[in-house]
Design a protein that fits this description.
Blueprint: E1 4-7, H1 10-28, E2 33-34, H2 45-55, E3 58-63, H3 85-95, E4 99-105, E5 129-131, H4 136-150, H5 163-183, H6 185-191, H7 197-222, H8 231-266, H9 273-305, H10 309-321, H11 333-336, H12 343-373, H13 377-401
Parallel strand pairs: 1-2, 1-3, 3-4, 4-5
Helix pairs in contact: 2-3, 5-6, 6-12, 7-8, 7-9, 8-9, 8-13, 9-12
């Protein structure tokens, strides 16, 4: 999905929009700029617009001199029609909290809130840029620099830079992507659906980094393995444990992503296993980090009240790993006695709050499957239900034959 969405009226600013689109595509690449001519024949126009606006980082609304007063065949102003596509695009962008930038062309002025429908009142307060015919190249250059610097949109024709500047730009883009993933997961995941090999490489790198980071966070609470040995032995044991955890995590993702891809096929949609795996990598990676960090904070709070509780719990779990008997976890007697207060209580509450926030994030991020694949709500529910039924079935078979 494209990061830059161009909204315009064909009978108002087609020529200016075409010039602007050509310049943006030359600078950022064709895949990062979207306009309605790219919607395929037979595709649902409204759904295509909804998906594209929802995944865009910035929506450029091209405003010409006839943009505000454009009327339909019956003489009604188009902006007053709830079904007007330009109005719909802006409403969707504002609702998705995407950056909306009015682009004034051919001497147009920014409309006031009183001149717009109530649903577009916020649009009148968006900071506009002006593209003048007399200084078109300079104005477009300033706009592209703003898009690149402020919104961290990669450029296919970036100017030469120093190594330090390149590293700073890369770190800025990574930070921007991580913030977007945390706040707007569907938007970032949808932008990683261009079909390029780099999309899958980024997803794999993020997944591997998330799994590694989660294990490192947990080790901070559990402690390094092989206590009592030398520093070299402890380091080797820790590295081996992290590598094993990384391998197991990636295998788990591959198995569950394959099962989810099969569920989508049964639901009547065939997005391809690679695309399913790409989305699942982001969802699993984000969920794993949230679970591990929340668990580490919760464990730190319990340790303040009952030191050694985590170690005793791990020892209690080890015998159950080789048998079907449930583990008898130790009790935190001091907590039951009502001594959970102060910093310990704060950490425990923070850990639980992070777990709840992670669940909410997962629900929001899960919508990236439907948005990225252009599936119906019914197909998404069927695929998700089938996928959730698989672990339950495997657990039931394990208990039956165990």
């Amino acid at each position: 999905m494209a990061e830059i969405f161009l909204s315009y009226r064909r009978d108002d600013s087609t020529s200016a929009t075409g010039r602007l689109a050509d310049a943006l595509e030359a600078h950022f690449g064709d895949d990062r700029v979207f306009r309605d001519r790219e919607i395929g024949a037979g595709e649902n126009f409204v759904e295509a617009i909804r998906r594209s606006v929802g995944s865009a980082t910035v929506v450029l609304v091209v405003v010409g001199r006839h943009w505000l007063g454009a009327r339909d065949a019956s003489g009604q102003r188009r902006l007053d029609d709830p079904g007007d596509f330009v109005r719909l695009e802006i409403e969707l962008a504002l609702a998705a909290r995407a950056a909306v930038v009015p682009v004034l062309v051919e001497g147009a002025a920014m409309p006031s809130a009183a001149e717009l429908p109530p649903s577009l009142a916020e649009f009148s307060r968006c900071q506009a840029v002006e593209l003048s015919d007399a200084s078109w190249r300079r104005d477009v250059h300033a706009l592209t620099e703003t898009l690149r610097a402020r919104f961290a949109i990669d450029s296919d024709a970036a100017p030469p830079s120093t190594a330090a500047g390149s590293r700073t730009g890369a770190l800025t883009r990574v930070a921007s992507d991580m913030l977007d993933l945390a706040i707007h997961p569907k938007r970032l995941i949808a932008r990683r659906q261009t079909g390029r090999a780099s999309d899958y490489a980024r997803a794999l790198v993020f997944l591997a980094a998330a799994i590694l980071a989660g294990h490192v966070v947990l080790l901070l609470i559990v402690g390094p393995p092989g206590g009592g040995g030398s520093f070299a032995q402890a380091s080797a044991a820790t590295a081996g444990l992290l590598l094993a955890g990384e391998f197991i995590g990636i295998v788990v993702v591959a198995v569950f992503a394959s099962a989810l891809g099969l569920a989508w096929r049964i639901a009547g949609h065939r997005p391809g296993f690679a695309r399913v795996g790409l989305v699942f990598a982001y969802v699993y990676g984000g969920a794993w980090i949230g679970f591990c960090v929340g668990g580490a904070i919760l464990g730190a709070g319990v340790e303040l009240v009952d030191p050694g509780f985590v170690a005793r719990s791990i020892e209690a779990l080890r015998p159950s790993a080789s048998s079907s008997a449930p583990a008898a976890l130790p009790r935190v007697e001091r907590v039951n006695g009502g001594l959970m207060a102060g910093p310990a209580a704060l950490l425990v509450l923070l850990g639980y709050a992070l777990w709840i926030a992670t669940v909410v994030w997962c629900v929001a991020a899960w919508g990236a499957f439907r948005q990225s694949f252009g599936a119906t709500r019914a197909q998404a529910w069927i695929a998700t239900s089938l996928w959730l039924a698989l672990p339950a079935a495997l657990f039931g078979l394990g208990r039956h034959f165990g």
